[in-house]
Structures are given as C-alpha cells and as structure tokens.
Specification:
Layout (H helix, E strand, L loop, with lengths): L1 E7 L5 H15 L6 E6 L7 H10 L4 E6 L6 H15 L6 E4 L7 H12 L10 E6 L5 H18 L3 E6 L7 H11 L4 E5 L6 H15 L4 E3 L7 H16 L19
Parallel strand pairs: 1-2, 1-3, 3-4, 5-6, 5-7, 7-8
Amino acid sequence: MQAVLYVSHGSRVEKTKVEAMEFMESVQKRVDVPLQETAFLELAAPDIAEGFTKLAEQGATKIAVVPVLLMSAGHYYEDIPEELAKVKKNYPDIKVTYGRPLGVQERLVEVLIDRIHETGRDVPRDAHLLLVGRGSRSPETKQATKLIAKRLKKKLGVKSVDTCYLAASKPSFDEGLEAVKQKKHSITFVIPYLWFTGLLMQEMEKKVQNLREQGLTIELCGYLGSHPSVVAALADRAVQAVQSDHGVSESYGVEESKAWWI
C-alpha cells in the first residue's frame, strides 16, 4: 500500500507546529494516497522514526518521503537520509522513494510578490528589496536565493535587490540591514523566504521595527505560509515522489536547466 511521509523542520515555537500541521492537512487533501503522515526532523514530535513506523504498522509497502524544505541543503542531503536509514533497517521490505524540495519556482516568486503587495505600500522603481534566506553552508542555497532575487527584480521592475541570510551564509541579515541604512532608498521591503513563523521571524520583526523607529521607511513582508500556491507546490512534490523511483541516496543535480528549477 502506498504511503506518504512529509518531513518538516520542526520548531520550539508551538504556533509554528500548529501552522505546519494545518498546512499539511491542506496538502494531504490534494494528494490521492490512502496513508499520509507528518513528521519533524527536530524540536517537535512525532520524529521521522515515529512517523515511518506508524505508516508501516498501517500496512504501507511503499513510502514516498517528501521533504518540507524550500532548498536542497544539509537537511535534505544528510539529516533526513540518515534518519531514514536508521528506521529502514527495521522495515527492509518497504520501498522508499525520496522527493524534492520546492526549489525555485515561478509560482513561489509570485507568492513573494503577493506578500509585498499585502503591505499596502506602492513599489516604486527606486524601492529596495532585501530577500532574506534561512542560510546554509551549501552553495546551492545562495545560488537559488540569488536566482529568486533576480526573478523578483525583473517582475517588479525595481533597480535594487540584495540578498542576505539568517544563518551559515554571508552576508548576514544584520549586514543586510546595515547596507539598507547606508543606501537610503525611498522604501525598503524586507522579504523573508521562510515557510512558517518561528524564532527567526520574531527576531526579524524586532530588528526591522528598530530601524523603523530610527526613521527608515521599511516594511517586513509576510512569510510564505499557507498561500494556495505553496500548498499546490508541495502537493505536486508529493505526487512526484509517489510516482518516482528515485532513492534516498541519489542526487538530482542543481543546475538552473534541471527540471526542478521551474
């Protein structure tokens, strides 16, 4: 029997877990598979082993593992496969396929544009966009983030777009904000490329508010959240994982010309 295991990052913030579970419920309604469970990589329960075991006990013979990740980085290549390898030893007859992160998609760029417009502010040509990624040691993360920034710049027709990161990559978010202070644009839109709320989002809100109190015209846009296009994107990844023969140890490749850069 076919099953799907969605693996989300996890957070200490209860609101983040609630958001994630509600989001998964919306996704599961779009995926025609009899057995579906959500697990967390860290900081929340159930973990991967618990989610996998629950599906196995319900009669799953094939499990499509769907990473609830925006980018292909350490969690995708190392952490999730390591946890799957451990639990798979207990269920050697279950076939496991491994899905893809969302990657760079035009519909996700459009979600970011929606979040900008939701601030209620006009986006003049001299506006500045600061795209904020979570960050990773993987070069793919910066490659993907820069591509998203490039698409935003083209679609909105603005002159200035920069990228920065909340962890593990440079420039840091603090460095990005310092550059905002120096450039003095008519308005700056800080655009978090984050899936759910959490401690990182809370920290961003504090720092943006501090700049606003210093007299800068700056807006913090909403995170991706449960936008219908994001729900559809993950549902599509789940269907692809179900139909795939792609194993956990294989690599998809990262060039812009590859299929997942859509």
